[in-house]
Structure formats: C-alpha cells, structure tokens
What we know:
By secondary structure, this protein is α/β, with parallel strands linked by helices. It has helices at residues 7-20, 37-47, 84-87, 89-93, 139-155, and strands spanning 2-4, 26-31, 62-65, 72-76, 98-102, 115-122, 130-137.
Amino acid sequence: MFTINDLEATAAFAKIIGEVAAPGDNLVLTGDLGAGKTTLTKGIALGLGIEQLIKSPTYTIIREYTNGRMPLYHMDVYRVEYDAEDLGLDDYFEGDGLCVIEWGNLLEASLPEDYLELILEKDDTDEQKRLVKCHAYGTKATAFLQRITTKWQATHE
C-alpha cells in the first residue's frame, strides 16, 4: 500500500509508474468518482514521455497515445455494457504498450489474466490524500509492482 499525501505526490507516484512500465503491462485503476484515476493516468503519461493533453475516454472508451517511449492505451470502461472480447480489448491487453483501464473491475472475467490493480481511496480527513492498495495478478504484474515499489522507495527515503 502507498500513501499519497497531496497532488504533487500523486504526480510523482504516477510518473514513476510510467517510467517503470514495460510493454504488455496492464494496470487497472479502481476507486470512487473523484478518487484520482484520470489524474493518475495523466502522470503515468508524463512518465512515458507523452506530453499531449490526456483526456478521459469516458465516451470513446479508448484513447491511444503513441508519442512516448511506448504506446499508452487509456481505457474507461465505466459505461461499457459488453465484454472485452466484443470490444477487441484483448488486442490491447496483449499489445506493445501500457494499458491503463479505469473502472477495470467492472470488466470482471474479461480482464486480462495478468494485471496490476491499484485501488485508490480518498482519505476522510484530508481531501488531497489517497491510500493506494495494490493487488498483482500474475507474474508480469508482480514484477511491475516490484519496479514501482523499488523506485518509489528510492525516491522517498
């Protein structure tokens, strides 16, 4: 679990995720509305070297950003009424970039076999503070989480 104290720390944490991500990594972001899923994705994009404006793909479902060190496939499946197979998401999950899936928990059985889930929780006493719980499902996800943890600890000692 990570404790993120403010927006600056959120940006730093997200940038680390982008910096250590490897092609084929899948990241599921879970949390209430306003928990910071899209904010986190913006920082991840910076860590990948993507400087263009990152917008929530709420209505488009998928936005592709290909001008970084590897592609970012940003998905928001909140309004999806189909499974990932019907939408062709498997091609992204097994692709050459990083998939960031907001509300991915709603896909349930359609999620890839190997993914890292970050559950963002608001702190009741501090509007900017977030607790980030992590669950790695699979060997790639476990390695991804280890890279994040190692770099975060190295920059926050």
